[in-house]
Design a protein that fits this description.
The protein is about 30% helix and about 30% strand. By secondary structure, the protein is α/β, with parallel strands linked by helices.
Length: about 180
Amino acid sequence: MTSPHLSPEELKALVRTVPDFPQPGIQFRDITTLIGHHQGMAASVHHLAALADAAGAQKIAGMEARGFIFGAAVAVQLGIGFVPVRKPGKLPIDTIGIDYALEYGTDRLEMDPGAVLPGQTVVMVDDLIATGGTALASAALLRKAGAVVSDALFVIDLPDLGGAERLRGAGITVNALMEFEGD
């Protein structure tokens, strides 16, 4: 395996922008072009793994669904376990869960309560941070299970939507490989 050597700026160029999706005025940041590029995917995972390692990750947690792509790959690269934070009803065991507010309504996340050990350092990984609602709920759920969650890593940050700042306000260090201004 060769060492990936694309910079975050080069990775940013691999993200496709789709105008007016899912509604007029939205600039959708589509990572399928990034994950479909073998060097781009490898470099993204390499950069995220270096950040997770520096944060002392003992496990990686990823939020459904695209957080599974990056989070599981980071966990494999670091040789540590992966914790899937799931949508409701996806796990065949008794779970712990948390309800959280969306712009219109509520949603729920669940996980296996035995997936982390008390005091274990878990770094969250996801593809994108927008408003931060899912990431904040994931951190609360992981903490409810006994994890220490002080770092969250993202491929993309949309800083104008304030999610990274909301996480920082909850005592979580946020790192992203790239930012896109505007929504």
